[in-house]
Amino acid sequence: MHRLARALLIAASLISPMAAQAKPVTLGVEAMRQLAFEAVTAGFAEQAFVYTDLLLQRDTKDSTALAIRAQALRALGRTEEAQVAARFAWKYAHSDNGRYGAAMAMAQVLSTEGRRTAAQLWLRRAAEVAPNARAYAIARRDFGYVKSRNPWVFQLDASASPSSNVNNGSSNSFMSIGGLPILFDIPPDQQALSGFQFGLGLTGKYRFSPTAPNRQTEARIGLMSQGVALSGDAKDKAPDAHAQDYTYTALEFGMAHHRGLDPAAQNVLHVTGTAGHNWYGGDDLSNYLRLSLGLDHKLAHGSSLSFGLSGDHTARLDRPIQSSDRITASVGYTFALGANRLSVEVEGAQTTSDSAEVRNDAVTLSLGWKKTKPVAGLILSGGLDLTQQVFADSRYVIGGREDDKLTAQLQVGFQNIEYMGFSPVVTMQVTQVQSNTAQNERRNLGITLGIQSAF
After folding, report:
1. Strand locations in 91-194, DSSP E?
2. Is the distance from CB of 328 to CB of 347 less than 8 angstroms?
3. Nearest of 12, 81, 17, 11 to residue 39 by alpha carbon
4. What pLDDT, on the 0 to 100 scale, is given for residue 17?
5. Which residues make Cβ contacts (< 8 Å) with residue 183, sequence separation at least 6?
6. Distance from C-alpha of 68 to C-alpha of 38, rounded to nearest angstrom
7. What is the DSSP letter of 130?
8. Which helix (H) or strand (E) holds 267?
9. Contact (CB, 8 A) for 303 and 331
10. Which segments of the chain have a pLDDT < 70?
């Protein structure tokens, strides 16, 4: 009310007939900017527009005046002109204060036009140049508000990592066939090759307007690509191997429906369908279809149970005999223990195929851990997966093949390092596969640098 009263008093003194007969009132640049800001904040957009006109007659590159003008034009419904003003405000800003005001003004204009994804980008810019903690908190709050009303949700994943096994090759150099006491060389390009892996993924989800409370349907499209660079040792070991031989790309389309089964959403049902195509080494690899059903049940004290059932069909295009169908069932339990959040999940899968090297039964035990609060600015989490696959038939060993796979990882997120709302994440992962067939034994040690959204 104090700002409104002050703006009204100053405005009245400038435009009243009595003031016209009295000695003229002279306002400095800062006072005029403050008056324009208070006018637009109080809802007097036309007056704010007039005041910014006077400021811009003095200096056409007045970033503060342009930002206020953008807000006034937005309030007057002249959003295209408001965008132009906000863009010039950003261009001419020479301080974090100026850039912050311009970015916030642009975000407001874009949100008014319904361009919420673009508005989120400008709010990330505002957070990046926020002059203080309060301004940062406001940009982050507004980002959450716009995001909650945006039917589109985009997720960008990028990673880079050195790896001891970029091609998922065997950790051995010899193998036997059919249990014969004869060793055969494993081709160098099928052995583990060291190098560098890098990946990029983009996922877009469109959330349809809910038809009822606790119900949400969404469509999804995703594109993921992973490439490698071979080390000098790998090139010497396998001179016929080329980095492009190990590139992997996948394109997916999907639909999902989430439905609360009770008013309090204690039980939530998830139904998902996904269709995709992938390439390996630049050649078509497979088409695949996945249907899944999940149920989350909330328990007391933040604990929950989850149940899952899915079916997958993979049509291999490079080796049709290795096409397969898989059925998977899982149950998981998540609970809090002090300042930690723990999870345990058991999954069983059965894969059928005309190929003995694909047909198998598998069981996986997964353990997860996450610190609920940052530790010295670090967000910590980790996991351990134990998988046993049993192949009843195999051309490589009499009596069938058995693979035991262990994967352990530790993930560290850096809360205090941020750029436009994204923070780095380092993942350390060790994978070991023991098998009664030498060519299927695997070993891989990798450290991955990725990014994740901080809000």
Report:
1. 152-163, 174-175, 184-185
2. yes
3. 11
4. 40
5. 174, 175, 176
6. 10
7. -
8. strand 267-280
9. no
10. 1-26, 174-184
Residue 23, pLDDT score: 55
Instruction: Convert the pLDDT of each residue in 4-42 to its tens digit.
Output: 445 444 454 444 444 444 455 567 889 999 999 999 999
Spatial contact of 224 and 204, defined as CB atoms under 8 Å apart: no
Give the whole-angstrom CA distance, residue 451 versus residue 277: 26
Residue appearing with tokens 């059903």: 293
DSSP 192-203: ---EEEEEEEEE
- CA dist 455 and 26 (Å) reads 45
CA end-to-end span of the chain, whole Å?
Answer: 33
What pLDDT sits at residue 5? 46
- pLDDT tens by residue, 99-116: 999 999 999 999 999 999
Residue-level pLDDT at 20: 42
Instruction: State both tokens at 93.
Output: 């800003």
Q: Dihedral of CA 116/117/120/125: which sign?
A: negative
Place of tokens 């046993």: 388
Domains and CATH numbers, the chain: 2-148 (1.25.40.10), 152-453 (2.40.160.40)
How far, CA to CA in Å, does 240 sit from each of 150, 236, 237, 244?
49, 9, 9, 12
Residue 407 burial by CB count (10 A; 0-12/13-18/19+): exposed, middle or buried?
Answer: middle
DSSP string, 222-237: EEEEEEEEE-HHHHHH
Q: What gap in Å lies between CA 39 and CA 27, rounded to an integer?
A: 15
Q: Strands, E, within 164-194: which ranges?
A: 174-175, 184-185
pLDDT given at position 277: 98
Nearest to 225 by CA among 256, 194, 203: 203
Cβ(280)–Cβ(245) below 8 Å: no
Four-CA torsion 417, 419, 423, 425, nearest 10 degrees: -90
Q: Calculate Rg over the CA atoms of the chain.
A: 30
Reported residue count of the chain is 455
The pLDDT value recorded for residue 437 is 86
Backbone φ and ψ for 354, nearest 5 degrees, come out as: -75, -15
Counting Cβ atoms within 10 Å, is residue 176 exposed (0-12), middle (13-18) or buried (19+)?
middle
The separation between CA 192 and the C-alpha centre of its own chain, rounded to angstroms, equals 30
Q: Are 7 and 36 in contact (CB under 8 A)?
A: no
Element (H, E) at 102: helix 96-112
Amino acid in position 383 = G
Rounded Cα distance between 63 and 47, Å, is: 18
Distance between CA atoms of 176 and 183, rounded to whole angstroms? Answer: 5
